[in-house]
Amino acid sequence: GGSAPPERDSWIGGAQESQRADMTELSEIGGILARSGDPEDFSSALNRLHRLLETDISTQGPCISQGVADSVVVALEERKGGLLAEAHLAAVKVLRTLMRNPEGLQWMVQGRAVAALSGVLRRCEDYGKSAAQEAVIVFLSLSASRANEDVLLRSGSVEAMLDFVKGAQGGGQADVLALKVLMNLSSSANVRTILVGSGGIETLLAIAGSDEPGDRQLQALKNLMNLAASMELKVEMLNRGAVQVLMKSIQAGTATGTEESLLALKGVMNLVCHQDTKVPMVEQGVIEAMLSLCSAGEVPQEHQVQCVRILMSMATHRDTKVPMVERGAADIAVTLALEALQQGEAGRELQLECLKTLMNLSAHMETKATMVSSSKGVVPLLVRCALGDGSARGSDHQLHALRTLTSLSVGESVEQAVVDGGAIPTLVAVAGDAGLAGTEHQLQAVNAIMNLSAAGGAVKQALVDGGCVEALGAATRGTPEGENRLQAVKALANLCAGREMPAQLVERGCAEALSGLARHAGGCQEHAVKALSYLCSGDEGARDELVYR
Fold this sequence. Notes:
Layout: H1 8-35, H2 39-55, H3 60-65, H4 68-78, H5 85-98, H6 102-110, H7 113-122, H8 124-127, H9 129-143, H10 149-154, H11 157-167, H12 173-185, H13 189-197, H14 200-208, H15 215-227, H16 234-239, H17 242-253, H18 259-272, H19 275-283, H20 286-295, H21 301-314, H22 318-326, H23 329-342, H24 348-362, H25 365-372, H26 378-386, H27 396-408, H28 415-420, H29 423-431, H30 440-453, H31 457-465, H32 468-478, H33 483-496, H34 502-507, H35 510-518, H36 525-536, H37 540-548
Helix pairs in contact: 1-2, 1-4, 2-5, 4-5, 4-7, 5-9, 7-9, 7-11, 9-12, 11-12, 12-15, 14-15, 15-18, 17-18, 18-21, 20-21, 21-24, 22-25, 23-24, 24-27, 26-27, 26-29, 27-30, 29-30, 29-32, 30-33, 32-33, 32-35, 33-36, 35-36
């Protein structure tokens, strides 16, 4: 029952008329920007232009092609808006609107617009806080793409943004956005060079270390964490006091699980991943701080994981292993790993980091004896994890436990302790597991047996009694030609060496495993023949049995 719809032709005609009116207004605005010297006229024209571009997207192309956009850039460069902050704000808003379409972005990158916006940041007090804040938003969009890196470098935008942050001119959210711009750009080595040379690290450290928590401090910590991931900046940041600043945030917030403390922990983790930073960080008390946090009762697990990762990384340096073990790092890693085992799936990540830490700590002759004699039970923990307790067969957890057992099995003072800790049944189970044939898990178990087999007396007897001959024989038969089979043959050769064992070894089928390998040329043949020669040196009964078999 309403009125009839308008004719299509009349609707099209109305749209065309409206578009002509917009183009007329665009030309009028362009004339004002090109000729007028009155700041009030400039301000009014720029606001009209911004509204026009927002309401009619079809005017954006002509705005560029007719030179109106260039007039806006000139207006910014020459401050034709005078002291009117509203005019400068409108000019920046025009540029931000134009940047949203590909043609406008290309015009900005190829022209002088980016440099003009950098000038707004440098002279924030002249252009007004609002215009500077709007310019920061433009730079945030530009910094999101690596394609714009060159123009930002050429225009001095990095230095301008850093000056803006140093002066805290924007206040509140603008400073936070400016820090985000710097973080986006810091993926470039050229930008990182500018930041170092222009005091960027010191500025970030000052913000992060201030006693005024908030978004600005949080973003500064994100920037520091990001910069600390760059290999060339780790030592530089350490020398400029980054550890002390990060540790302040860690100590203040880890107990309650703040985001700031977690970021600071990740920053320390990034810093420690360099051979030249580990020892100085030990001297600055990082070990004690991490151990203290790991021992604290109410630390959130995500923070605990980061603390253990830091310890794990520090333990890769030869000069840090002994002091770390002396200060209880191995005992704490065992305690946390046992707690993580009780948590099931929720504790898997923490358990893995603890096992990695123990593995790194064990790679030093002076730490092994302390670790295996620990009242916390390093070897029993490794035995549990090497059997796959709490994880699937073939998992990283199982692998790192086996690697640590292999490492601890080297040295006269530790072999018996490893055996007493219950390692042999676990090593036998993994070495002879057909499902793990050819894997690194099997290789580590075989290597551990080989290390232990180099010992004499009671250790070697325990290996034979524990079924190592059968497990190694299975490893030689069930794996293809390669490292696993070769190491298994070497371990058998170690067991065969000496006059006290041949008869037992022959009875357990050692000769059959070796004779098959001795018949075929390859890497294993030499060691198989050597092992058979050891067996031949036994008593007459053993030799007769050997010939019979």
